[in-house]
Amino acid sequence: MDQRRPAPEVELLSEQDAARVLARASELDATHGSIDRVADLRAAAVEAGISSGAFDAALGELRAERRPVAPVLHGRAPRALRRWLVTTAGAVVLVAGLLLARMSPAPARPPMLEEAILLRCLPTADALALIRPVLARAPDTRVHTTAQAPRVLTIRAAPEQIREVRALLDRHEEPGSPACMRAAPQ
Which sign does the torsion angle of CA 19, 22, 28, 30 carry? Predict the structure, then answer.
């Protein structure tokens, strides 16, 4: 089997194949920048057998494609565009606010301590009423008693609050105070 190609000078191409070869050769030439002026391109087209009229028509089509076309605005388009812009801007502001809120550090809370305080003289209900305003100033504070130890208050609060509660209870439970005088046996 002899798979030799015919010599390029005697090889025949269909009209469609010839057009494809010329178009591709023209593309390759254009990418290499060898033809960049319209006059040079026109001369090459005439040399390739393309009529001047066909060349001018193709050039006119290319120029028409390159012309910027102004958008056609209908009566309602500007209002719809404004509405869309306002909605989008609002969404962006909302998302940015949420992101900033998540990224900003939470206010630092003091560490919480738990301490048991033995009541000497005050009844439990009176002691709870006395310390409730101090503990109500901060969230997450707790106070409780158990049935097994009704005179012991277990307080969970910030260190400063626990100091304040101790000082308050000490003032009301010191020897000679009205609460201790009532609790003392006669």
Answer: negative
pLDDT per position as a tens digit, 17-58: 777 777 777 776 666 655 567 777 777 777 777 888 887 888
Q: Which amino acid is at 92?
A: V
Interval 84-111 mean pLDDT: 81
Set out the domains of the chain in order of their start, with CATH numbers: 15-65 (no CATH), 113-183 (3.30.1370.120)
CA 98 – CA 116 distance, rounded (Å): 42
- Reading the block at residue 156, the tokens are 């969970």
Instruction: Find out whether 159 and 113 touch, Cβ atoms under 8 Å.
Output: yes
The predicted model scores a pTM of: 0.42
Helices (H), 72-157: 77-103, 124-135
